[in-house]
Amino acid sequence: MKKIFDEIHGYITLNDIETKLVDTPIFQRLRRVKQTSLAYIVYPGAMHTRFSHSIGALHLANRLGLRLYNEGVINQEEIQYLRLAALLNDLGQFPFSHSIEPLFLSKNISNKYLRDLIITKSQEINEIFEEYSISSKKILDIYHGQSFLSAIIDSDVDVDRMDYLIRDSKHTGVQLGNLDLDRLIDTINYGENKTIIILDKGLTSLENFYISRLHMYQSVYYHKTILGYEIQLRNIFSQLSEFCCPGIFDESFLKDSVTTNYFAYWDDEWLFSKLYESLFDPSVPDSIKVKIKNFLDRNGPKVVYEEISFQNIESRIEENVLKLTRYGIPETAIYPFEEAIKIIDKSKIKIKTKNKEKDLKEYSSTLLNVIPSVIYIRRIYVEGMYSKKARDLLS
């Protein structure tokens, strides 16, 4: 047994198997992967890691699991599998989390794919599973939606989201992610197809969750400056990879790194080391070195055009990019960005009142009906040296 003091939840107790898993190099790696990627560039306190978040997710999974156990819904073994699924959920996160993941997604390699690969192929992890008679298949079933416990780990209102909203709020100092965790955990249930079932007395806490989610997406996760640096880092790494680490986008390369345990050292510090090494590598083009220096010196791309809407209005991104290139701004210095971010799926929320379940649309007296389902963010970033000209052209 081991106790860890967490700045959000206080003391969190790990049992013997969890302690052994946490002590493996591949889990210790998460101490060196920042939870909110490059958010520290805007919010200096955002230095917390995937490690602390994973411990926090385990804690919340345990709290919810114990409530379900006391209600006779699950047994002790299922609580253990729920705890393990929450603990190991982030094992496959990329260096700087989602900053470089899109490069790998284009090759059909996601953090969930890497997580599953580690759970099935890591010799050290599987030796611990065998020692304690743990079935990796049961953990994967939870991840893949083949268990009634799945929604607790992956749904609109899961323990992962509960922990990161409150943790990211604390470390950024943005007081928009505070949740009434006690009431939410006490009143939430899950149905088929990851449906959220909330007791009517817990409605306010669920409203608070979704409002917090909307505000944190606007103020932190898609903050214009943070996102600009993530795009810049992604652009640098996509060009740099052929010089520093050819083959890194190959599935076989990543599989080998898991089986040889080198994956344990693929972290934020690894990526930064490649940036520093490249500055002194004569084979790396000067154009890439300039971008690296700009990134390290916090001289990132600037937003010259922005559309934020809760309605899917017609995009002007393409025509504005064409306008910029037509008037002399290099295409390599322009970074268009478009994304529709899901905030709430109202079709999957039911409200339980007087032993009856109602669809959300049947229950008018809740803010959930007016929270926007999707936020659309469209931006054009350009390298700093072209920002004034670009703004003048698009004004």
Automatic annotation (TrEMBL):
Record-level Gene Ontology MF annotations: dGTPase activity
Gene Ontology BP annotations: dGTP catabolic process
Sequence ranges assigned to domain HD/PDEase in this UniProt record: 46-174
Domain of life: Archaea
SUPFAM superfamilies listed in its UniProt record: HD-domain/PDEase-like (SSF109604)
Any Pfam family: HD_assoc_2
Gene3D superfamilies membership: Hypothetical protein af1432 (1.10.3210.10)
Protein name as it appears in the record: HD domain-containing protein
Organism of derivation: Sulfurisphaera ohwakuensis
